[in-house]
Amino acid sequence: MRWHPLQLMILFIICLCTDNVIAQSQYGFNAIYSLPTGSFAGIASHGFGVNFNTKFFLGPNVALGLTGGYIGYGEKKDRISYRTVPVTLDGEFYIREEGIRPYIAFSGGFVLFTRQQKFSQGSASESEFHLTVVPAIGILLDLSRSIAVNFNTKYFFYTVKGDSFSALSPAIGLYYKIGY
Predict the structure, then answer these.
(1) Which entry of 105, 166, 171, 180 is 20 to 30 Å from 141 by CA?
(2) DSSP at 6
(3) Global pTM?
(4) Phi/psi at 168 (5° precision)
(5) What's the pLDDT tens digit per position in 81-137?
């Protein structure tokens, strides 16, 4: 049996919701600035968005998580704007165990990519799901036993109708820690 990425994500969410998690976990909210790169930079201007995520620490240096977000990009030409809704499974490796914690991460999942064109008397839009891969680097700064601030930069990459789209997306967020 071959597993579809969406099936794996649903299974992961079910496992997280039905298991008694005693491990350390974090829930966060991030504000995102996104700069289109490559061919995407030629058709879209910078974007802004938010994401919500959760992290479950398997050990002091390794975390798995789930992220869902929204990024809206401005018009660059032909009154066309773009929106993305990424949902990813995340793996993070932390260099240090407390205080200022730099990390590297890799995520994979899918993105709902929407293209909307405005006309003088209305608009038309089309949306499609695409697989995405997202390498990232960041710093998690513990402010207290229950609060942390996260600074990261993610590089979103996906293919739409044979064209490669990518964006460099720095973010800052606030996290609530449980089990510390």
Answers:
(1) 166
(2) H
(3) 0.81
(4) -95, 120
(5) 999 999 999 999 999 888 899 999 999 999 999 989 888 787 888 888 999 999 999
